[in-house]
Design a protein that fits this description.
Blueprint (H helix, E strand, L loop, with lengths): L2 H23 L20 H16 L13 E9 L8 H14 L3 E2 L5 H11 L20 E13 L7 E16 L5 E16 L4
Parallel strand pairs: 1-2, 1-3
Antiparallel strand pairs: 3-4, 4-5
Helix pairs in contact: 2-3
């Protein structure tokens, strides 16, 4: 290969690298349907949340489930899901969606535990002397919850051992356990879990 051909070759390779780099740096936006399943890697994402909520809510709204058959809607209170993973996952999003779906089913009522301080603040204001007594609400009329909804989210991550290969694989396992506890008796009336296992494969060289 003479000097001129070598220079041409190097120039073409460099030009190709620049084109690839510029193409890779372009930003783009794509709109998905909320029902689309989209995973960019092995980590927990919005599609996982939808699956978890759907799988946990479905048995609770079936007519075969004892609480769903009650004439008087059972009153629930949500005390959250403990995040025992190493990731920053907002488990409030899971319980919020579970509560919303159960409310939409028309078979359950919920105590709004997150607004108790504001409820107390408003009631105290109404009895401060600034509100017409004929319009203020009565105290001690709140309803007590009968069941407590709680849960735990855990994860396990496994990576391929070091070896000669072009790609590295990561396996991620998530397990969400959820319980309904009878507050009066402290008995667990119902428990279920959802498991998610996903493997990702990434090249050693890439953006």
């Amino acid at each position: 290969m003479n000097q001129f051909v070598r220079i041409q070759y190097v120039f073409i390779v460099a030009l190709f690298a620049v084109v690839v780099a510029v193409s890779g740096c372009r930003s783009s936006t794509k709109t998905y349907s909320p029902e689309d399943v989209v995973h960019y890697d092995e980590s927990y994402d919005a599609s996982d949340k939808k699956k978890i909520v759907r799988d946990l809510v479905d048995p609770l709204v079936q007519d075969t489930f004892p609480l769903a058959r009650q004439t008087e809607k059972p009153i629930l209170v949500v005390y959250g899901i403990s995040n025992r993973t190493s990731e920053h996952i907002s488990t409030d999003g899971i319980t919020d969606d579970i509560r919303m779906e159960l409310l939409k089913s028309g078979k359950y009522s919920f105590v709004n535990e997150t607004q108790r301080a504001n409820i107390e603040k408003e009631l105290n204001y109404q009895y401060s002397g600034n509100v017409d007594p004929s319009t203020r609400l009565q105290k001690a009329k709140q309803l007590g919850a009968e069941y407590m909804l709680t849960g735990t989210l855990r994860s396990i991550e496994k990576k391929q051992p070091r070896q000669v290969r072009l790609q590295k694989k990561t396996l991620k396992y998530y397990s969400l356990n959820i319980e309904l506890t009878n507050i009066e008796t402290s008995l667990i009336e119902w428990a279920d879990k959802v498991e998610i296992v996903r493997e990702s494969s990434k090249p050693f060289i890439g953006w």
